[in-house]
Automatic annotation (TrEMBL):
Pfam families: DUF5753, HTH_31. It comes from Streptomyces pacificus. Signal peptide: none annotated. GO terms for molecular function: DNA binding. InterPro entries: Cro/C1-type_HTH, DUF5753, Lambda_DNA-bd_dom_sf. Residues 18-73 form the HTH cro/C1-type domain. This is Helix-turn-helix domain-containing protein. It comes from the Bacteria.
Amino acid sequence: MASNVNPTVRRRRLGQELRRLREQKGMTAEEVADRLLVSQSKISRLENGRRSISQRDVRDLCGVYEVEDRRVVDSLMQMAKDSRQQGWWHAFGDIPYSVYIGLETDAASLRVYESLIVPGLLQTRDYAQAVIEGMWPEATQSEIDKRIQIRLKRQDRLTDPDNPLRFWAVIDEALLRRVVGNDRIMADQLKHLVELSMQPHVTLQVLPYAVGAHPGMYGKFVILEFQDAMDASVVYLEGVTSDLYLEKPNDVQSYTVMYEHLRAKALSAEQSMEFIRLVSESYGG
């Protein structure tokens, strides 16, 4: 296990291994829960990596699965210990979407569809502040400042000289037209989009109004892919009070196909850059 793997990914890998051991034993999550006198939902959360896994949990599960190889048990116990380490985002306190940040931090590439606001990794500070103030009108100034700092820190992945995030975004024309903040903020934001799209690892496509109905009308989503073959792709759907992570191959495939249709309907990267420049002029940019 590489030392630079973050705790979210460690939990996910450990959960996958525990699921494999359960399935190898031919047991259901309900049967394991009954043996350990815990809820079935706890077993599910341990296996999907959404819950911290203690070394005691690992020991108990290995006992149920009758894992006799001490090296395997010790390796899983070490993974559980490492998974409880803290990522950079923990310094900001309680964050509702910390699981997503952990996955994003370790992802090799992101495919994003966004219809209403500029994707967070592409936002300027002023735009981010205006968005956060508008979306959370009851947030305190300290909460707003914390969200801004986290968003800007996440953007380090795009500028990492050694391991830049491969970022592909299809954005709806609507988010270019919606005035967030004021005209100056919008002009600066669209100029920023053009500059970012010139980076070799960033691709930006605009889905114009003229295409009419399209698969993205279901709502925004993110497909996260990872360098290590052990880590399956994840589809992330953001909600108001809770988020959804889809990892089943059929679910990921459905969103992948949807994304390919969106890319096909959208303007090319070159056309999109010119389109954004034209819209920017309407804001005095």
